[in-house]
Amino acid sequence: MTKDNKHTRVLSFISSEYRQMINYVKKYFNEKYYNISAEDIIQDVALNIFSKLDFDEKVENMGAYIYRALKNKINDYRRKKRQKIPFQSFSRDEEKK
After folding, report:
1. Which letter, b or e, does each residue of 7-40 get, where b requires 16 or more Cβ atoms within 10 Å of its Cβ?
2. pTM score of the predicted model
3. Which of 2, 42, 44, 45 is most exposed, with the fewest beta carbons within 10 Å of its own?
């Protein structure tokens, strides 16, 4: 399979499954807590896949490969330190209620 054929295959999969991938990321990842969106995670995974498409091994199931990459990226963000939210921002929210 040529490199252009691999790009076309991955691009068509991502474009057809984009909504489902967003829902998948949102299911396992709290965007507000980590201050990054599901779209950003999908774009990061897609960029990594497109940059590494010259590997020799054939990917049997492209969907499983991409969803596993998404799950791994979610776990990477979970391992990183989270952004600390100042306590004062919570107290101001409580005063408004």
Report:
1. eeebeebbeebeeebeebbeeebeeeeeebebee
2. 0.70
3. 2
DSSP result, 25-89: HHHH--HHHHT--HHHHHHHHHHHHHHTTT-SSPPS-HHHHHHHHHHHHHHHHHHSPPPPPPHHH
Query: Do the beta carbons of residue 69 and residue 13 sit within 8 Å?
Result: no
| Fold classification of 3-96 (topology level) | Rna Polymerase Sigma Factor; Chain: A (1.10.1740)
Residue pLDDT, tens place only, 22-72 = 999 999 888 777 778 999 999 999 988 888 766 556 767 888 989 999 999
Q: Which residue ranges make up each domain of the chain? A: 3-96
